[in-house]
Amino acid sequence: MARLPRLNLPHIPQHVVQRGxxxxxxxxxxxxxxxxxxxxxxxxxxxxxxxxxYVLMTNHVHLLLTQTTANGTSKLMQSLxxxxxxxxxxxxxxxxxxxxxxxxxxxxxxxxxxxxxxxYIELNPIRAGIVSDxxxxxxxxxxxxxxxxxxxxxxxxxxxxALGLSSHKRQANYRALFAREIPAAMLTEIHTATNKMWVLxxxxxxQQIETLSGRRSTPIPRGGDRRSESYKKQKDDH
Length: 238
Hints:
The structure is a single chain. With about 240 residues, the protein is α+β, with helices and mostly antiparallel strands. The protein has a single domain, classed as Alpha-Beta Plaits, CATH 3.30.70.1290. The chain is about 45% helix and about 10% strand. It has a 4-stranded antiparallel sheet. A hairpin with a 3-residue loop joins strand 2 and strand 3. Helix 1 (about 30-45) runs antiparallel to helix 2 (about 70-90). It is globular.
């Protein structure tokens, strides 16, 4: 089956995930993380992509970003991926691929899901059992968004800015969000939407994306009578 074109629209946030091939480690040393972030900043600026949140894990990366051009995210991830593979292979005297195929991504409903996805990203080290507090993991945007440590590659989204009139108020309100656990159903929803590259948002948001992109934003439900009129209509609508 031919794969659907990636949902990739300007000015709409995206949750991007890129994993190491066969779950292999993609970062070994402090310098590796620093090189990746430096080039992320470089290519984000070059291709007009705003980075709002990130976490670099041992074998994968999460980004919350917004492209300002039609293909900014794709260009960013391609250029960053190629540069980092060359760096990694040279540094560790290896050859071959590093990343697991195409990166995964989902468009994010700004009003309902932006801050949720930001928390999801920055809580990765907690879920992985690496630290007990996101502040103890240094390779994350939590230090900027919650603690006020300036990370120059980040651009604060309007949703984040609406948390308070001052930076201290925004940081305090952002930290307060972490007092509540993300429900398991929400974790599954984010994980599934990203890995399947569907849209993460309300029904209305998904309909808007379908109108803008010209392709369906959710999978066609399985099962039922495939000869029924209701099934045929649903299929035709997509």
